[in-house]
Amino acid sequence: MSNKTPFEIRLELLQIAKDHLDKAQAAQIEFLKDSFYKSVELGQMTVKQANEQIKALMPAPYSMDEMVKKAGELYAFISKRD
After folding, report:
1. Rounded distance between C-alpha atoms, residue 39 and residue 36, angstroms
2. CB 37 within 8 A of CB 50
3. Contacts of 59 (CB under 8 A, 6+ apart)
């Protein structure tokens, strides 16, 4: 068992939270692209229309506050004593 300092634990939780948010955002972007490019393949919209829709619906980058909030949720989960 390693003895981590509170700083090391918080840093690790922030890294986990960032990784989670990065993966969630990447999945959203990939889904968005796939959906609109499939519409282009089916002839439901042009490439230009698809690109405009992607830009309009692109998820905003997460903020530091969102990352800290996610880390807090992770901390609350691992701190539970059920």
Report:
1. 5
2. yes
3. 25, 28, 29, 32
CA dist., res. 72 & res. 13, Å (int): 8
Lookup result for tokens 């701190």? 79
Determine if residue 78 is left, alpha or beta; phi over 0 gives left, psi from -120 to 50 gives alpha, anything else beta.
alpha
The pLDDT tens digits of the residues spanning 2-58 come to: 788 888 988 999 999 999 999 999 999 898 888 888 888 888 888 888 888 888 888
- Residue 53 CA to residue 79 CA, distance in Å, equals 42
Over residues 50-74, mean pLDDT:
88
User: Rounded to an integer, what distance in angstroms lies between the CA atom of residue 24 and that of residue 22?
Assistant: 6
Q: What share of the chain is helix, strand, coil (3-state, %, to 5)?
A: 75, 0, 25
